[in-house]
């Protein structure tokens, strides 16, 4: 039989123990987390609960139910999830819009940003103890890093913490700095001229001469170029079939899909460089369909750093120490824009998923406006 008291109800169970319950300020019934050996202990628990209710009312603060207090105690007793642990797991478990795992190059990029810019500050911190002030201090100290690196680091931190909110590890993300996630202005690249491309190609080892020419005139990414094999060259159509790319990880080269689905494409080889491609296939590429076009001396993939050792001398020979290998791709895109390639055509040739990047190369071809003006005049002149 239940005994009603001013502060709650006590009921003796068939086992002989006592159960205590009460109606809280939320009008819900709340039960003691345990049963009691005797009635006096149940009375003490109810009185303590009444004191907590009265104190909350007097201090005009929110009353916390017994269930909420137990949950808070449970969470406090659990091992804290650190940002470093959660961030590493986030990269492994991250999926793209199609539900697919991150591509190897993207995964590598995230891992580098995490290790270089985030883990040193937040790695050992419990993820639920990182505050807005912590994030602001970290971002301020990040100032010496290149602007693009700062933007990428901030973007990754924001993405990880947003996922932590979804996983109910934190109530709200502390990553809120106005303008920190905005795209940074890329450095201005002066494309190489056809003459400079030729000089740089001639300064490379003979077995790598064609790599500069193909990269510049066909605008390939380095990972696409390094994975090209004999079977990827359509001799009859004079086309490069880009189907794969290689990324260079700590464990070694890893061949996988192109940077995006749009990266799978056929790139027509300009007729004036086709003799160079033919000569290269004849003199430097093994007859097997799977033979790499530009292997290392050990016949495996040539690492980006290894290629750069040769390219640094080649660009110096052309007086273009400012160029990077990726600038050869920029050069090819700009040259295509200069001869009239539309945004859609550039997008297809470069393997871009959106037209935004392709439009940049059209803007770079500013001298075409003079050519257009001269052609307009020739209409009047009857030329």
Distance between the termini: 110 Å
DSSP helix fraction = 40-55%
Rg over CA atoms, rounded to whole Å, is 33 Å
| Beta-strand segment tally | 9
Low-confidence runs (pLDDT<50, min 5 residues)? none
Describe the main β-sheet briefly: 4 strands, antiparallel
Number of spatially distinct domains: 3
Instruction: Give the overall silhouette.
Output: elongated
Please provide a written account of the structure:
The chain has 383 residues and is an alpha+beta fold. The protein has three domains: 2-77; 83-166, DNA polymerase, domain 1; 194-370, Orthogonal Bundle (hpI Integrase, Chain A). It has 15 helices and nine strands. Helix 3 (83-93) runs antiparallel to helix 4, helix 7 (194-202) runs antiparallel to helix 8 (209-218) and helix 7 packs across helix 11 (304-317).
Write the SSE topology.
Elements: E1 2-5, E2 8-12, E3 18-23, E4 29-31, H1 39-59, H2 66-77, H3 83-93, H4 104-122, H5 132-141, H6 147-166, H7 194-202, H8 209-218, H9 222-226, E5 233-234, E6 239-242, E7 245-249, E8 252-256, E9 265-268, H10 274-284, H11 304-317, H12 326-338, H13 343-350, H14 355-364, H15 368-381
Antiparallel strand pairs: 1-2, 2-3, 3-4, 5-6, 6-9, 7-8
């Amino acid at each position: 039989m239940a005994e009603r008291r001013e502060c709650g109800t006590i009921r003796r169970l068939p086992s002989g123990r006592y159960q205590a319950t009460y109606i809280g300020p939320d009008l819900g019934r709340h039960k003691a987390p345990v049963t009691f050996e005797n009635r006096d202990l149940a009375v003490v628990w109810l009185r303590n609960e009444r004191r907590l209710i009265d104190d909350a009312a007097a201090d005009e603060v929110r009353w916390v139910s017994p269930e909420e207090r137990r949950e808070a105690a449970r969470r406090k007793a659990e091992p804290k999830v650190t940002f470093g642990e959660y961030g590493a797991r986030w990269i492994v478990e991250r999926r793209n819009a199609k539900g697919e795992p991150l591509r190897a190059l993207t995964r590598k990029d995230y891992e580098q940003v995490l290790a270089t810019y985030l883990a040193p500050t937040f790695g050992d911190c419990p993820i639920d103890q990182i505050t807005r002030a912590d994030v602001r201090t970290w971002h301020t100290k990040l100032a010496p890093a290149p602007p693009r690196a700062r933007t990428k680091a901030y973007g990754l931190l924001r993405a990880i913490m947003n996922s932590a909110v979804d996983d109910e590890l934190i109530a709200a993300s502390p990553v809120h700095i106005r303008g920190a996630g905005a795209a940074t202005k890329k450095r201005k690249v002066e494309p190489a001229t056809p003459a400079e491309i030729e000089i740089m190609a001639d300064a490379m080892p003979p077995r790598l001469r064609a790599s500069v020419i193909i990269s510049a005139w066909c605008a390939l990414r380095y990972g696409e170029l390094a994975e090209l094999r004999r079977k990827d060259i359509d001799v009859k159509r004079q086309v490069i079939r880009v189907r794969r790319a290689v990324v260079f990880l700590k464990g070694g080269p890893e061949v996988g899909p192109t940077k995006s689905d749009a990266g799978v494409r056929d790139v027509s080889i300009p007729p004036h460089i086709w003799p160079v491609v033919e000569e290269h296939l004849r003199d430097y590429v093994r007859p097997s369909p799977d033979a790499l076009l530009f292997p290392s001396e050990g016949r495996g993939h040539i690492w980006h750093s290894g290629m750069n050792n040769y390219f640094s001398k080649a660009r110096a020979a052309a007086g273009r120490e400012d160029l990077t290998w990726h600038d050869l791709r920029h050069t090819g895109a700009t040259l295509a824009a200069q001869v009239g390639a539309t945004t859609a055509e550039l997008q297809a040739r470069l393997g871009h998923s959106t037209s935004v990047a392709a439009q940049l190369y059209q803007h770079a071809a500013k001298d075409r406006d003079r050519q257009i003006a001269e052609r307009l005049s020739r209409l009047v002149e009857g030329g």
